[in-house]
Amino acid sequence: MPHTKRRRLVTTAVAVSLGATALAACGSSDDSKADSGPVSLTYWAWAPGMDKVVDLWNKGEGKKDQITVTVKKQASGDTLVTKILTAHKAKNGPDLVQAEYQALPTLVSNDAVADISKSVGDAKSKFADGVWQQVTLGTDAVYAVPQDIGPMMFYYRADLFKKYGLKVPTTWDEFAQDARQLKKKAPGLDLTTFSANDSGLFAGLAQQAGAKWWTTSGDKWKVAIDDAATQKVASFWGGLVKEGVIDNQPMYTPAWNKALDTGKQIAWVSAVWAPGTLTTAAPDTKGKWAMAPLPQWSASENVTGSWGGSSTAVTTDSKHQAAAAKFAAWLNTDGEALNALAKESGIYPAATNAQTSGAFATSPDYFSNQSDFYTKAAEIAKTTAPSAWGPNVNVAYSSFNDAFGAAAKNKSDFTAALQKMQDDTVADMKKQGFEVSQ
Amino acid sequence: MSSLAVRKAAPAAGTTPGTAQGPPLRRRIALIPTITLLLGAVYTLLPVAWVVIASTKSGSELFSTFTFLPGSGFADNLKDLNAYRDGIYWKWMGNSALYAGLGAVVSTGVSAFSGYALATYRFKGREAFFNVLLAGVLMPPVILAIPQYLLLAKANLTDSYLSVLLPQILSPYGVYLSRIYAAAAVPSDVVEAGRMDGASEWRIFTRIALPMMIPGMVTVFLFQFVAVWNNFLLPYIMLSDDEKFPLTVGLYTLLEQGANTPALYTLVITGAFLAVLPLIALFLVIQRFWSLDLLSGAVKS
Questions:
Q1: Of A116, A212, A314, B271, whose CB has the highest number of CB atoms within 10 Å?
Q2: Could you give the CA distance from residue A371 to residue A375 in angstroms, rounded to a whole number?
Q3: Domain definitions of chain B by residue range
Q4: Within chain B, what is the greatest distance between any pair of CA atoms?
Q5: pTM, to two decimals
Q6: Please, what is the angle between helix B172-185 and helix B210-230, to 10°?
């Protein structure tokens, strides 16, 4: 049994890496008979208000084509991936799922999402290349339509930066200097914190530095979590923590909220969706924050990473894959749909032309002091570095939490923690039956 | 819980009013357990106190004011929770009540039947059957959720009320407890006497044995009710339609709405607070059945 399982997984892995015909064919096999008669589809999504957006489809476009979509609201995160895979095991999955980009390789290697390249029309043209690459996984197949993205940015308390004479950092060196300077001037304050709970943030920072954690060559996976770029990022943050010039406590805790709200932490490396988080985390400091591009590793560069973002995928369990793909394309490229998504669900659209129109013509309420927020955000989004996700991101992430959690707490060597993350990830892939090259 | 230690000390002090050396000694012995139990009570009650107080705080007070300082937003929180998606919270509450109430009643019935049968009748394979059950007690129900999902998917029952109810009806722990309790509370003499008088086995069970087993069955019911009420993984895996969610899964979807939407902390905390109330009410109401325990003990001797 281990042997057969190994073979099957290897085959799918090969299929992923080559965009091979086996998987593509199996995914699109029933396109032909999908569009006759009324079709009803179920859609697992977590974005709030998605049912209202889908109503637009059911009353308009969908009515014409007799395709009705029902949203079943789910909780986001890795647990949903588990739920989708469990449902898929019983051939019982919904027709459409909302999936984070880093979960797509997992879903593809389990044959849970279908290749919809034949049914999404010219959707590709609506997205930046780096975004589109996340749903093709670098193959000829298309496994999802991008919905929202999370290009990373630098947020800072404009008033406090002025007060302490800090310069908005354009490079990470300047960022480190700011941290030191602030510690000297106001020992009770921290520029920011390194959060060992937020693997997505670390992945985004590594992505900006040029890391490619998972790649394939031939029929083998290569895991490079401990590559030079990521080591640079790890030792940079580890150095700051060890020096004691930034905090080492996790984000998204009551204490962190308080630190932001009271000005104990005066900057936050985050993504385009930060205004929403700050609204609840730091309600008292509204209007005092400003956004700038992420600091760069060298002054001549202009790249950012991404933190978060998701896509709409069609499952292989769906009996109406073409109809589902049509809906997925409409949802994420149609102007009216994107407007509604922005309004009801608060997402930052992946579709390029929606990033400055409609709901994004004016700044978010929290940033009313920065009138060009979304113009700037759209420019930054264009500079997003390509990402390289693999089939066990969840394992790498939980290893990150453990290893970096301990390292941040003890202010010890971050590169050792990185090595552990690499080893855990490789070991798990081998256990799952993937071929991994050293 | 600490009342136990207190009770022990109190009569001792009362019965020996004049002697000087008795009570202090006993009090010193009771001190350590009392402190331990008090610490235990603080440990378990502190999070509850946190939930109660946090549910009174508005969004802006939640993280900024002192943790145990009551806020001013309880009414607003309640209103927001009530308004969230047309009051779906109450639907979840109703679902939880259905899963836990009906599930626990049926499960208790099944446990009483099988526990009584295992305790009273001698049949081939009884011990083997009981040992398998014991193994079932040791098995955490969490690891069964996915196999159960796959099974029910074959029967086309997933995403239905039944899919959550069915797997929770057979509770190995409930059967185990019922057997132990039936063996202790229903003397074989009583069953024999019933047979002598010509009562059918069914009549003996329902009219004689069951009333004697009630305190035990109340315990089984409560255990099962709380277990189902708090269960997360089984309904999470089984259900995809959020109209059928119980509270646990429903509140989880409020917390995990994706990174670009702030988590609805105040709603979740208020929701969690309200979700504890039915359990507390249930314990208070059902508590009096436990006193029967003493009574049945007296009858036995």
A1: A314
A2: 9
A3: 3-54, 82-300
A4: 75
A5: 0.83
A6: 160
Contact B269, B54 (CB under 8 A): yes
Of A75, A273, A279, nearest to B252 by CB-CB distance is A75
Which chain B residue has its CA at the smallest distance from A253's CA?
B63
The answer to whether B222 and B286 have CB atoms below 8 angstroms apart is: yes
Lowest mean pLDDT among A203-207, A430-434, B45-49, B55-59: B55-59
Architecture of domain B82-300: Orthogonal Bundle (1.10)
**CB atoms B260 and A86 under 8 Å:** no
- Chosen for mutation from A253, A280, A360 (greatest number of chain B CBs closer than 10 Å) is A280
Question: Do A46 and B256 make contact, defined as CB atoms within 8 angstroms?
Answer: yes
The full set of domain ranges for chain A reads 2-149+307-371, 151-305+388-437
Residue B34 and residue A410: Cα distance in Å, rounded? 37
Which CATH architecture is the domain A2-149+307-371 placed in?
3-Layer(aba) Sandwich (3.40)
Type of residue found at A57: W
Quick check: helix, strand or coil at residue A156? strand
* Residue A258 · residue A146 · CB < 8 Å: no
pLDDT digits (tens, 9 = 90+) for B56-84: 988 777 777 788 888 888 999 999 999 98
* Triad A382, A388, A392: Cα angle to 5°: 140
Q: Please check whether the two domains, A2-149+307-371 and A151-305+388-437, share a CATH topology.
A: yes
Residue B194 structure tokens: 């019933």
Of A334, A309, A321, give the one whose Cα is nearest residue A112: A321
pLDDT band at B263 (very low <50, low <70, confident <90, very high): low
Amino acid, single-letter form, for residue A253? T
CATH of domain A151-305+388-437: 3.40.190.10
* Interchain pair B60, A283: CB under 8 A: yes
CB A128 within 8 A of CB A340: no
Q: Could you report the per-residue pLDDT of B241-258, keeping only the tens digit for each? A: 989 999 999 999 888 877
Q: At what angle do helices B145-154 and A78-89 cross, to 10 degrees?
A: 40
